[in-house]
Specification:
The complex is a heterodimer of chains A (562) and B (502). By secondary structure, chain A is of the alpha/beta class. Chain A is built from 17 helices and 19 strands. Chain B is built from 16 helices and 19 strands. Classes of the chains: A alpha/beta (562), B alpha/beta (502).
């Protein structure tokens, strides 16, 4: 039985009965039978755009007789991928190839353009690929770029599964695949809690399994400044939690390099002008002294518990901008991506308004509203970041656009994060905000429905999965302004103790929404593939949590000796 | 957690604890439990502390400023297994002339060693230090439990060990092992091995063998933790029926067996013959006096549909009151348990349905309106443990531990005698969405809040003190290899959690 499927994926059930590489979710059938169509073993996540599968099977001997080959030589991105996937397709040390089936002995990775071998991934990359396993001992993976080849290798690795007697199987398959959105991010926050380097690398691994392609690194915030700057080393010397809680230049280089090998961009955020309390530990002059409620108490009176005595940059001092120029010159040299996130959310007007020096400065400059001060800061930062030695593009949180400030549209992405469901907005939904921003003509990314730090009992991944990012409008021109989205993991209550199991497989739900066709919406059918994906992650060393009662074949997460 | 009477001196005087000169010494009764504990706490105190700070050159410490030993005097001979009646009190004194730990029973010595290990901290100049301290301590409640559910998801033995470690760090003394349920039957029975062959998720990898069970009991025993197993019936037993095919009630629709099974069939003698043999096995395998019999959430629908049960109801004169049938089952089950000299714990549903219980039965309260239920249960003279406020599987954003901590377990109108019948409580972590990937970080340190509520005096309610101590304690657990999650918002541990990998 072979069937061609276009756009809308359908799995064709084969002769499988039990597969050890699959997950098993259960419910007590008498009372609450599970709905949806059970996925065949070796079902990929996120779902490819076109997936033609068949009941005809081949086998594979990944441990002893399998070769990754490519038309490109000396390409570290491919070499790294071949090493990783060489490991990850070995599902079980006791598994063997099937005796009576043809073996896939080789995968030919044909890449049209070798540019990625010497470059970093970018938002314009073509991540499409095609993959065929059709009876020949050679599987063929075609892609215009090495980045597409990485996505195809991931899919290939997911197609491999084990029979109940531990024989490797892979079905005849032909896949044509490409992402729906070019920006598919995961935001991590290393300021509320610090993540050791090994945790970040495991996050990158798990992202690559979900075909996520942007690590959005909210690297500093009020609470701590772990980035070890070469220009201003005192920032982390005084602003980090401790001398051990820093990212050295070597650490950052390593994260960027590991991310690149997985086709993942690293976009840092040095959030300002708000959220900068930790910057003031080393450079108190950067911050605006807050004058209580403006009439009493004098300077340095905090408005606890929401605000400290000073936590927002002083927008009227030239020294602030000279400092920022120095910092951004370093950032754009250090972080190779075209984009840098400038932050700009949650500006604490009350502090600026309370400060008499700012009032005087406003009067001297004929400014009448505090928003004009915010606009001034934004204008200065856009100017600074436009004339750096390496010009960059910018991402900002949505507030400056909400406030109708003059934010340049060219080379700007506005991150939509406010919604009634995440407590950031009282009445306005993310759809309303997004429509308003689109109507102003901005390109956007969406994170409002995907604040994964807000945990709750049960299957909240279904909520993330069922979000349709473009349903803020029926106008396709406006819809096209949305370039993707990201899951945000703010780390007030998350650190390396729980990150991986809190975030996965919930982030996988976001990943499929951003990669797969818009028509892929059946959450009940998706749950079986998602369970396979979470079990796959466990096997590969990331403790993704369960989505329902059940188990992962004969394999469970266990305590490993250190 | 806070001790009954702790009197830190006004001027904090510290002495230094050095790895190469410090030793634990037994000056009273000794046994394997004590020696194993010495070994454990020596590693806890010294190993992880020195991992990261080794670069610092330390100065010579004169003998007068060194703490050279902790003398542990256990006054009575060691008991083999912890029990509900065990004495966990202890006195701990750290002075410049030395440190002593005195306890009537070995169990108190374990609690005191844990406290001693927590008093030692890392000074800014690179030494392990301990303040001069006098502590006199004992638990408020004698039943302080954690429920883990190994049926919805299987937990490998290593994870159970890790939890037992964490329980010891929190002076929790009961591992309530909800070992089987509808979903799977991972207990590999000695006398009915087909139950796990047919009822486990995987008959080879997702089972607890007899060896595993005795390993867990032994691991717990050495930490002063009881293992109270739960074999929940007559509901929650779908997985039993895979092997014991005559056990479950056949459900009918339209006058015919519809292929589904309900609770255990309470009307046939084969049920009780099986239960007699099985309970006999459990009473021998599990060393604790108490066995949890479950008895919760029995659905009467299937019983109502079955014509044989209808006949039985008629014969027994039960009318249409199916709780009388449940009563009949529980009475016979309790008789069996009694015959095998085992104590029983049941969920509150049993007493709510009017079942007559033996006076030594412990009733576990899990539904809401729990204080009224406590009043009712204790008024009938039965002992109660409480878990309603502490269902830790219901996660939410933020600092949930605060509400667990603030909950006062005895808050009903009743006599002192009634209140004395509330013997403790349990934090429950049902496993619909929990397995070995997240059980540790989800349980800890939220369960630490429950642990302090059950150990420390009723008057210990200061949230500010608790906040800073619970975060320090969670970092302590992290350093000891337990991936306890952040408790109080942004911050850091000197030694961050290891999430695997390189």
């Amino acid at each position: 039985m072979e069937m061609r499927i276009l756009g809308v994926p359908v799995t064709i059930l084969t002769i499988w009965s039990i597969s050890l590489s699959s997950g098993f979710i259960t419910w007590i059938a008498v009372r609450l039978p599970l709905e949806g169509e059970v996925a065949a073993p070796g079902a990929p996540w996120p779902l490819p755009q076109q997936w033609n599968t068949s009941s005809r099977q081949m086998t594979i001997d990944p441990a002893f007789n399998f070769v990754f080959a490519s038309n490109l030589t000396d390409c570290d991105v491919l070499d790294g991928a071949f090493e990783r996937y060489g490991r990850w397709i070995q599902l079980d040390s006791a598994a063997r190839p099937h005796d009576n089936l043809t073996r896939v002995e080789r995968i030919d990775v044909r890449v049209a353009n070798a540019a990625g071998c010497t470059a970093f991934p970018s938002i314009d990359d073509d991540e499409s690929y095609s993959l065929t396993i059709t009876g020949s001992s050679t599987a063929v993976l075609n892609s215009p770029t090495v980045w597409g080849a990485l996505r195809g290798l991931e899919t290939f690795s997911q197609l491999i599964y084990l029979s109940d007697d531990k024989k490797y199987l892979i079905n005849f398959t032909s896949i044509v695949d490409f992402p729906r959105f070019s920006y598919r991010g995961l935001m991590i926050d290393t300021a509320r809690h610090y993540y050791p380097l090994n945790t970040i690398i495991r996050i990158l691994d798990a992202m690559s399994w979900d075909k996520l392609n942007v690590l959005r690194w909210h690297i500093v915030d009020d609470q701590s400044f772990p980035y070890e700057s070469t220009t201003y080393p005192n920032l982390s010397f005084h602003g980090a939690y401790s001398a051990y809680h820093v990212y050295s230049q070597e650490n950052v280089t390593r994260v960027i390099a590991e991310a690149r090998l997985r086709g993942i961009r690293v976009i840092p955020e040095f959030d300002a002008p708000g959220h900068t309390w930790s910057w003031g530990k080393a450079f108190p002059v950067l911050l605006t002294p807050c004058w209580g409620n403006g009439t009493q108490g004098g300077p340095h009176v905090p408005n606890y518990p929401k605000h400290g005595p000073q936590e927002i940059l002083n927008p009227i001092l030239e020294s602030t901008y000279a400092f920022m120029e120095g910092l951004y010159e370093e950032i754009v040299q250090k972080f190779p991506d075209d984009y840098v996130h400038l932050g700009m959310e949650e500006v604490y007007y009350a502090c600026w308004e309370s400060n008499p020096n700012i009032s005087q400065w406003m009067a001297a400059n004929n400014l009448t509203h505090i928003k004009q001060v915010e606009a001034y800061y934004i204008m200065r930062l856009f100017n600074i970041t436009s004339r750096l030695q390496r010009p960059i593009k910018r991402i900002i949180w949505q507030e400056p656009v909400d406030n109708n400030l003059a934010v340049p549209k060219v080379d700007t992405l506005v991150e939509m994060w406010k919604d009634v469901t995440n407590g950031a907005s009282a009445n306005t939904t993310w759809q309303e905000y997004t429509l308003a921003t689109a109507q102003k003509g901005y390109n956007m990314i969406l994170s409002a429905p995907w604040y994964l730090n807000f945990i709750s009992y049960g299957q909240d991944w279904k909520n993330y999965y069922q979000v349709e990012p473009t349903n803020f409008t029926a106008n396709v021109t406006l819809q096209a302004l949305l370039k993707g989205g990201e899951a945000c993991v703010w780390s007030e209550y998350i650190d390396s103790s729980n990150f991986l199991s809190v975030v996965w497989p919930r982030a996988s739900a976001v990943a499929e929404r951003l990669w797969s066709s818009r028509a892929v919406t059946d959450v009940n059918t998706a749950q079986y593939r998602l369970d396979q994906q979470r079990c796959r992650m466990i096997r590969r060393g990331v403790p993704a949590k369960p989505i329902l009662n059940g188990y992962c074949g004969d394999y469970e997460w266990d305590v490993r000796p250190e | 957690m806070l001790s009954m009477a702790s009197s830190p001196l006004l001027v904090v005087v510290t002495v230094v604890v050095l790895r190469n000169t410090f030793q634990f010494r037994a000056s009273g009764s000794t046994c394997d439990i004590l020696y194993e504990a010495f070994d454990r706490y020596y590693r806890i105190v010294f190993d992880k502390f020195t991992v990261r700070r080794g670069k610092k050159r330390l100065q010579f410490v004169p003998a007068a400023k060194r703490l050279s030993s902790l003398d542990v005097a256990v006054q009575n001979p060691c008991e083999r297994y912890p029990s509900l009646e065990m004495d966990e009190s202890y006195d701990l004194s750290v002075s410049q002339s030395g440190a002593t730990l005195t306890a009537p029973a070995i169990w108190g010595a374990l609690r005191g060693l844990e406290t001693f290990s927590q008093l030692i901290y890392f000074s800014s100049d690179g030494y392990l230090q301990i303040n001069l301290t006098e502590i006199s301590d004992q638990p408020r409640f004698r039943w302080r439990g954690i429920l883990l559910d190994t049926s919805r998801h299987f937990l490998p033995k290593e994870i159970i060990y890790q939890n037992l470690d964490a329980m010891a760090f929190n002076k929790i003394n009961v591992f309530h092992w909800h070992i089987v349920d509808d979903n799977s039957f991972p207990y590999q029975s000695r006398d009915f091995p087909e139950m796990s062959i047919k009822g486990a998720y995987d008959p080879y990898t997702h089972v607890y063998t007899q060896g595993d069970v005795s390993d867990v009991i032994e691991y717990a025993r050495l930490r002063g933790i009881r293992v109270t197993a739960e074999f929940d019936t007559p509901g929650h037993s779908q997985s039993w029926g895979n092997a014991i095919t005559y056990l479950l009630t056949k459900c009918y629709s339209g006058g015919h067996f519809n292929g589904n099974y309900g609770p255990i069939d309470p009307t046939v003698s084969t049920t009780y013959q099986f239960l007699d043999s099985f309970i006999k096995e459990l009473s021998e395998v599990f060393k604790d006096h108490y066995l949890h019999l479950g008895g919760d959430e029995v659905s009467f629908d299937c019983w109502k549909s079955n014509p044989n049960i209808t006949d039985f109801m008629k014969k027994m004169g039960f009318g249409s009151d199916y709780s009388k049938l449940e009563n009949h089952y529980m009475a016979k089950l309790l008789e069996i348990v009694d015959r095998h000299k085992t104590g029983a714990v049941v969920w509150q549903d049993v007493i709510d349905n009017g079942v007559q219980l033996h006076p030594d039965t412990v009733v576990e309260i899990w539904r809401d309106k729990e204080q009224a239920e406590l009043a009712k249960v204790t008024a009938s003279g039965l002992r109660a443990i409480l878990s309603s406020p502490w269902y830790l599987d219901y996660i939410g954003y933020g600092e949930q531990w605060e509400s667990y901590y603030k909950y006062e377990p005895i808050n009903f109108n009743g006599t002192d005698a009634q209140k004395a019948l509330v013997i403790g409580g349990e934090a429950c972590l049902w496993a619909e969405y929990v397995d070995s990937t997240n059980v540790i970080s989800r349980l800890w340190p939220r369960a630490s809040a429950v642990a302090e509520r059950l150990w420390s005096p009723k008057t210990v309610t200061d949230m500010n003190s608790a906040s800073s101590r619970i975060e320090e304690h969670r970092c302590r657990m992290v350093r000891r290899g337990i991936n306890a999650e952040p408790a109080i918002g942004p911050g850091f541990c000197p030694y961050e959690a290891y999430s695997g990998g390189e």
